[in-house]
Amino acid sequence: MASDNTSPETPDPGTVRPGGRTARVRAAVLDAAGDALAEGGFAGLDLSEVARRAGVGKTTVYRRWGSTTALVADLLADMAEQSSPRSDTGALLDDLRANAHLVRTTLTDPRQGPLFRAVIAAATCDERTAHALHRFYEIRVAEWAPCVELAAQRGELPPDTDPHEVVRAVSAPLYHRFLLSGAPLDEEAAERAARAAAAAARAGAYRTTPGARCAIIEA
């Protein structure tokens, strides 16, 4: 088991991106935490067991993270940074298809799917985990929002379209299937989500100008 050389004054998880041995330890611990979450859920997450899986001293894990909620928060921050970058195909529908495919692939992955279920379940009863989950989702939405902004610049969408709402409209029905309905989370579902979001955006459903959406509905 590795020795503990961590400084006693360790910053909050996620506030710095360490290098060298510290970075390797962090990566090993986060990987072990993800495996543990996927296998046993949040209730089964234990810092000592994570340390054993990662092959590091448990004192290092307790000193750096201090609690399972802090560890999950750091894991989500790392997942947000490591997730695939947005697409830039030059066409709104193709970009939204790429986003839908990424969401579907993540949620149906044998490891990532159970991991997300565990984190979402934990977020319903733990404020810190909920905050970390919300931050993860907003980082990913912000990553893809420029696809919508570029589409508006090309004239595919009204210029006052809210890009974040369009991206959320793609993933929302996929998360609904994943968590609530039990309906198949297949490529057809991803295609439908992308097409529906694109069609609604073109029709002006996500315009930010006061009264613009109401005018569309009344028309």
UniProtKB/TrEMBL annotation:
Residues 46-65 bind DNA. The keyword Lipid metabolism does not apply. Coiled coil: none annotated. PROSITE patterns: HTH_TETR_2 (PS50977). InterPro entries: Homeodomain-like_sf (IPR009057), HTH-type_TetR-like_transc_reg (IPR050109), HTH_TetR (IPR001647), Tet_transcr_reg_TetR-rel_C_sf (IPR036271), TetR_C (IPR011075). Keywords: DNA-binding, Transcription, Transcription regulation. Residues 1-20 are annotated as: Disordered. The keyword Transcription applies. Residues 23-83 form the HTH tetR-type domain. PANTHER family: HTH-TYPE TRANSCRIPTIONAL REGULATOR RUTR, TETR-FAMILY TRANSCRIPTIONAL REGULATOR. This is TetR/AcrR family transcriptional regulator. It comes from Streptomyces luteolus. The lineage of its organism: Bacteria, Bacillati, Actinomycetota, Actinomycetes, Kitasatosporales.
